[in-house]
Design goal:
By secondary structure, this protein is mainly alpha-helical. The protein contains 25 helices and no strands. α4 runs antiparallel to α5 and α15 runs parallel beside α17. The longest helix is centred in the N-terminal third of the chain and has 42 residues. It is elongated and about 105 Å long.
Length: 463
């Protein structure tokens, strides 16, 4: 039997109604499902399961491509696994969907910083502080970025704002003080560190940094006290030991400096330059006359940093001291190939050419060195040596005297100037210079004793 039209119409309406109800229920279940997935992704993020967050939000975004919160959260997850480019992309998608919360710009600014795109990082971080003047981490990060790119005045400004938001916090005060050191405001840095250490008297980093401020302000006594105090608190704090090594090197206590550099190398802190450590110790071994050890250190430096001109210069000087002039010239030539105005390369190229009797060539190297550093002791000494070898003793005395003014503790200059005076017949002046040479290095007394006695004897008849 064929149903009448009323029955057919009723059945059709019933089917449409059931379909609509089922569709709505399916839609509700689907929405509930995606909502649950986002909540689960948030839970996974809090549990630091960032890879799972990324996977889950990938599915979620496929269904909800207009969800700015999903892009932002996935960007945060990418940031945490150090995939900074993907993080930047997702933060950009969130921004395009009109999500302009401060956190978005902050984390995108951090991401740009991590990939060394500092200008974009600064631009994003400034958006944060323009929107929220109490967003402390953004002020600190802006200071860090500017510090990193050597824009210390801007770094100081942002660290100061952070300090205002959270006053008397040693962390921010330390950042301010380190910036003051970079700006060469050493006394201001010392005042800050005195406040910092009053708050936290056992933090070796703060004490060590205060020591550097004292050292750079030429207060050697307090610098030494700080470095030693830091080491007394933490005997393996490599940075204080390193600074102590540099202190001893600068003050001529070479054996102590070598001992401290060696200890730093044994501790091997990750952010100190191994090539620089070996080069510094190599310089010290030259001073102590331990040329084989110096050679090993410079070879290590060159192995670690094959384009370092100072390493070749140091090794060239070692070869000069060992009498290996051909090897010395090869290294010094390499120095000037890498850096044509390298002071060490010019000076020691001049000294080696003096030994070879190439006086015109030597003079050219040494005068070019003086153009770069007019009061360089070794360049002045080298010209004195050159004129001494050419028996132009008056000119030699002039350059030896300038070298002594630059460095009064350089015993070799007094020996040579004394010899120049002696050759001109100024025996009293010769004896006086040789007495000074012995004062600075008593070990050379036996070497110059015969000439000194002769000069003293002759000084009674001619001066």
């Amino acid at each position: 039997m064929i149903p009448d039209k009323k029955v057919q119409s009723f059945c059709l309406k019933l089917i449409l109604f059931i379909t609509l109800i089922l569709g709505c229920r399916t839609s509700l279940f689907s929405q509930q499902d995606t909502s649950d997935n986002f909540s689960k992704a948030q839970d996974l993020f809090n549990q630091k399961n960032y890879s799972a967050v990324i996977d889950m939000l990938g599915t979620y975004i496929g269904k909800r491509p207009d969800s700015s919160k999903a892009y932002f959260l996935r960007g945060r997850a990418y940031f945490e696994i150090k995939d900074y480019n993907s993080a930047i992309t997702d933060f950009g998608m969130a921004e395009n969907l009109r999500d302009t919360v401060s956190d978005l710009y902050y984390y995108r600014g951090l991401s740009y910083d991590k990939i060394k795109n500092y200008s974009q990082g600064i631009a994003d971080l400034k958006k944060v502080v323009e929107r929220d003047q109490n967003y402390l981490p953004a002020f600190v990060e802006l200071g860090d970025v500017y510090f990193k790119i050597n824009e210390y005045s801007f770094a100081f400004d942002y660290y100061s704002l952070a300090d205002e938001l959270k006053p008397n916090d040693p962390v921010f005060m330390d950042k301010l003080a380190r910036t003051e050191i970079k700006l060469k405001s050493y006394k201001d840095a010392i005042v800050l560190y005195q406040r910092i250490v009053a708050i936290d008297s056992t933090n070796v980093s703060y004490i060590n940094n205060m020591g550097m401020a004292y050292y750079l302000s030429n207060d050697s006594v307090n610098a030494l006290l700080c470095f030693n105090k830091a080491i007394s608190i933490d005997s393996v704090y490599a940075y204080a030991i390193y600074n102590l090594a540099k202190f001893y090197q600068a003050t001529g206590l070479y054996d102590l400096a070598i001992r401290n550099y060696t200890k730093v190398m044994e501790l091997d802190p990750p952010d100190l330059n191994d090539a620089e450590l070996h080069m510094n110790r190599g310089e010290l071994y030259i001073q102590t006359g331990e040329f084989d050890k110096a050679l090993q250190d410079f070879n290590t430096t060159i192995g670690l940093d094959p384009d370092n001109p100072n390493a070749y210069g140091g090794r060239g000087r070692v070869y000069v001291s060992m009498g290996k002039d051909t090897l010395a010239i090869a290294d010094l030539t390499k120095v000037l190939e890498i850096d044509s105005v390298n002071l060490t390369g010019l000076i020691y190229s001049g000294l080696v050419n003096i030994d070879f009797g190439n006086y015109d060539k030597a003079e050219n190297f040494l005068r070019n060195a003086l153009k770069i550093s007019p009061k360089d002791t070794m360049a002045l000494y080298g010209l004195g040596e050159l004129y001494f070898n050419k028996q132009k003793y008056s000119e030699a005395i002039d350059y030896f005297s300038k070298a002594i003014q630059a460095n009064p503790n350089f015993k070799r200059i007094f020996v040579k100037r004394g010899s120049s005076y002696y050759n001109l017949g100024f025996f009293r002046l010769a004896a006086a210079d040789w007495d000074l040479a012995i004062k600075y290095d008593p070990a050379i007394y036996n070497e110059i004793k015969p000439l000194l006695n002769d000069a003293r004897n002759k000084a009674g008849t001619k001066n």
